[in-house]
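Lecture 7 notes: from sequence to structure.
We start with the chain below.
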Amino acid sequence: FVRYLKRKTTAPLQPFKHCAFAVLGLGDTNYDQFCNTGKIINKKLGELGGKCAKEIAMADEATGLEETVEPWIDSILDDITESCRRSSSSTSAEKEESPIAYKPANENLTNGTNEAEAKTSSKSVAPQADVSKTLTQKTVSAESNSSPPEKSAALNTTANAQSTTVTKSVTSGDATFTTKSPSPLCILYGSATGNAEHIAKDLAEKYNKLIQSSPDTCYFPSVICGEMDEYKKKKCPTYWDTEPEVAGTKHGLIIVTSTTGNGDVPENAGRFVRYLKRKTTAPLQPFKHCAFAVLGLGDTNYDQFCN
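Predicted structure tokens for the same chain:
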């Protein structure tokens, strides 16, 4: 979160311009950088458009709980509520003063954008579908005015056919698979702190629910989810080694993995990674019948990010 606040790309977005905030920092007065994290967050939230509802409170975890923390807790809900209500009241007043068109609550725009530009921008925005429809109508109309009746009718017919084709392609999301995978979807994870495990299991749960609710729209009949080192226990190689009966089809494999330390493999993925690295594995081409995807998790503070 703090890295997000510090990024150079975050400031222009002003992501907290619609937020009121308050910060309570805890620390140890024996250190020079007392409550430094709280100070940084408080400063950055303000710079990124946030409205400070209450001055930052900083307390020594050992001695300042009664003097600082308890009074802050007693008053913070009222302070944050009042600050948010004031923002709401000012926005309502702006709407009443300008009943013709709604003006977004971003009058204090930065980076050289003034109020006139904001109004011009809001007037010029139109739904994409309407613009496309208008352009199509203008094109057909212009061509029909300069063409014989037969050509005009043909143009209108073509435009209608194109419109119908687009509509069908958009609404055909619930496709039915006539060819089913002969194997389950394998989702394997390598996780040190639990994030990769949570993502993998959540993905497996979502696909299982989709299978139960609408099996005809699912290519895979079931899902296998487990640690990468359990790939043999889950009998994944049994599926991977088998060539699908339908030519051109593949077995599915999804990998979700984190990186620990400076490029190290999670403990529950070491065996699988060693198997991939073995010189004897490459000639076997064990994944020649698989289609795969990998999601890597890591820390950008390390050189071996997502290694």
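Points to note: The CA atoms of residues 229 and 268 lie 6 Å apart. The longest helix spans residues 65-97.
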